[in-house]
Amino acid sequence: MMQTDVDLRTANTLALPGKATRYLKVAATAQLTDPVLATGRRFILGGGSNLVLTGDFDGLILHMAIPGRRLLGEDAEAWYVEAGAGENWHDFVQWTLAQGWPGLENLSLIPGTVGAAPIQNIGAYGLEVSERFHTLTAWNFAHGDFVSFDHEACRFGYRDSLFKQQGWHLNGRLAITSVVFRLPKAWHANLHYGEVSEELATRAIAAPTASDIAAAIIAIRRRKLPDPTITPNAGSFFHNPIVAPEAAAALKQRHPALPCYPQADGRIKLAAGWLIEQANWKGKTLGPVGMYEKQALVLVNHGGANGADVRRTMAAVQAAVREKFAVDLSPEPVFL
Ligand code: EPU
């Protein structure tokens, strides 16, 4: 049922205040076909864990709650597993592991929903969801039909996809209803990320199963990242900047400890958390908004913050990093 003037504070993990003129919880795909939803401003909301609510939203919030998870099929090489857009991401990952279909374990404990995962191509500990993505289905409001996107059509990049590039997400053009993942039967432990193998070593696990990796990653995340139900946050607040190799080499000369991650295209990814820490922003606060004391890349609401407070701290951090390193940080969450 459509609601009006709905408070969104509990619908975004930064706990920022703001009201939506209209709000509808979408628990079934068929609800989306109502033509009344196709007019006016619209935003598709998942778990609200990658969102900066800058104030009231004069439009319609569609809060995706479509459930369902099942094995769609399998062939000699892989299992194909489908989930509704409203499924909680972490619960879905743990369920696939319990079913004996490994492959998503490195993405354990990422907040948010299944439907949101492909939009910013969530990634952690050496894996991006694009590596396990098969297809998705979405409702196209302008055309009044369901469309399917395969891997190529999604144009995935680092924390990026077609849905972000075209502004489709921000404009509520499509509502993703379900996602199919391809989980290869030939499973290999993905231990590229040093911290994961270190955690397994301290647990004396030499040949980890997918569940061992999930447990290690859950422990690492719990140690380093604030629980949004206690300290409101939106995960990493900035992208790790990707710069030309010459720029990285020049910075490295002046700052030998600079972490550098070479990319497939020859460019170099820098660690925004390191840059922010070196710019003295780790654990620092401006008004009610600061950068987390255990992970400088995570912006936290210490209580009572609004969208303007977030913008102020964001700008101060960007200015400090620009001043010290001449590197521009771009925010990862969507601003509404
Ligand atoms: N670092 C610091 N100080 C800090 C934070 C980090 O010096 O305060 C250094 C670390 O020592 C390390 C490097 O920066 O050398 C990278 O740090 P970390 O391994 O914690 O990862 P990250 O680059 O800060 C990224 C993702 C996270 C993901 C982790 C693990 C982005 C924007 N963030 O963070 O994703 O969990 O890697 O794979 O790519 C998210 O997107 O919300 C998120 C949490």
**Termini separation (Å)?**
23 Å
- List the ligand species: uridine-diphosphate-2(N-acetylglucosaminyl) butyric acid
CATH superfamily of the domain at 233-331: UDP-N-acetylenolpyruvoylglucosamine reductase, C-terminal domain
Strand arrangement within the widest β-sheet reads 6-7-12-10-11
Provide the helix percentage: 10-25%
Shape: globular
Arithmetic mean of pLDDT: 97
Rg, rounded, reads 20 Å
CATH 2nd-level architecture of the domain at 233-331 = Alpha-Beta Complex
Overall SS class: alpha+beta
Catalogue the unreliable spans: none
Work out the helix count.
8
Give the C-level CATH assignment of the domain at 233-331: Alpha Beta
Task: Please state roughly what percent of the residues sit in beta strands, choosing from under 5%, 5-15%, 15-25%, 25-35%, 35-45% or over 45%.
Answer: 25-35%
- Main beta sheet strand tally, sense and closure: 5 strands, antiparallel
The count of strands amounts to: 20
CATH topology of the domain at 233-331: Uridine Diphospho-n-acetylenolpyruvylglucosamine Reductase, domain 1
In N-to-C order, the SSE pattern is: EEEEEEEHEEEEHHEHHEEHEEHEEEHE
